[in-house]
């Protein structure tokens, strides 16, 4: 009985130690990547008497604002100059921060694009919107 116990113990010990000794070799490290050199680009030669002005790519018009959420369920686009969303399907109707604004020979505002509308003055509309309509 002790011989069987000793054999099992020895076999378990050998198996456990052999698992520690068997391992995969680490892959060889890759050579370092040389720094990329920018390819030289020919610069246009400016015309005599005219300074060279690089052309700027046209920026796409943003459909949304990074700061303000668009109106719920309405087709609109963000107008950065006025600082409001312009409703595409309602003339002179705008939106910002849960409020709709409408210009109709004076300002009015509402919590719905369909009204009811409450009259307000230039102080009741976002600054860029008021400046755009010059009131």
TrEMBL record:
Residues 24-80, 115-135 are annotated as: Disordered. It comes from the Bacteria. Residues 1-21 form the signal peptide. Residues 125-135 have a biased composition (Gly residues). Residues 27-51 have a biased composition (Pro residues). Keywords: Signal. Residues 52-62 have a biased composition (Low complexity). This is Lipoprotein.
């Amino acid at each position: 009985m002790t011989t069987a116990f000793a054999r099992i113990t020895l076999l378990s010990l050998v198996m456990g130690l052999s698992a520690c000794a068997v391992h995969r070799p680490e892959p060889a490290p890759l050579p370092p990547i040389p720094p990329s050199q920018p390819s030289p680009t020919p610069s246009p030669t400016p015309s005599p008497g005219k300074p060279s002005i690089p052309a700027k790519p046209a920026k796409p018009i943003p459909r949304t604002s990074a700061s303000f959420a668009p109106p719920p369920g309405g087709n609109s686009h963000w107008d950065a100059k006025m600082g409001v969303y312009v409703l595409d399907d309602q003339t002179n109707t705008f939106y910002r921060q849960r409020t709709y604004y409408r210009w109709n020979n004076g300002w009015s505002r509402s919590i719905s694009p369909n009204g009811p509308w409450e009259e307000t003055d230039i102080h009741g509309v976002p600054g860029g919107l008021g400046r755009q309509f010059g009131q």
